[in-house]
């Protein structure tokens, strides 16, 4: 019982050690205690019956607080809550409870320091009116969306360049001496090229009307 801490006297330590002994005539046994002085006990839900050796037995777990403690002031640590609800098998030691208490106190101090640093920062309402308006204008300028790109003209130019690259050499103004048949003295006639009439798509482009011709019946 040396793990119970120096705050427990030798007489009480001996009494706790005596209550923890698993003697056969006892109905309940002491499991441990917390830093507030609450004790935790366990006992069988029902006595074993020799005629039914396979009867289900369950160890119940309870907490017993000092008589001087009011019911509204009874507080059970989280580790003992888990033990009472059968969420952990081993009872927590006093060292584990002390370490958890120190961790919570350290977390509370760090949270208080963070709150103090946040309070020390200047607020928006404390800034002068002129600087506040300038800051708001800068934020509005940063939040303005970028202007949309006008891709209609660019698309038309790209389509026109692709049409020119695909146009035959005669239609693109190839000299007559370099055209096919020029060496034989033949003249090549350039017919009405449909690629010249082609233009890139735009907002005002409309498809031409098409009238199908009647097919001859076979």
UniProtKB/TrEMBL annotation:
Under the cellular component aspect of Gene Ontology, which terms does the record hold?
Answer: mitochondrion; respiratory chain complex I
Pfam families attached to this UniProt entry: NDUFA12
Q: Where is the composition biased (Basic and acidic residues)?
A: 152-168, 183-196
Low complexity: compositionally biased ranges = 136-149, 169-182
Q: Where is the composition biased (Polar residues)?
A: 201-218
> Segment Disordered: which positions?
132-218
Q: Matching InterPro entries, A to Z? A: ComplexI_NDUFA12, NDUFA12
Say which domain of life the source belongs to.
Eukaryota
Tell me a GO biological process for this protein: mitochondrial respiratory chain complex I assembly
Q: Which PANTHER family match?
A: ADH DEHYDROGENASE [UBIQUINONE] 1 ALPHA SUBCOMPLEX ASSEMBLY FACTOR 2, NADH DEHYDROGENASE [UBIQUINONE] 1 ALPHA SUBCOMPLEX ASSEMBLY FACTOR 2
Family the entry assigns: Belongs to the complex I NDUFA12 subunit family.
- The protein here is known as NADH dehydrogenase [ubiquinone] 1 alpha subcomplex subunit
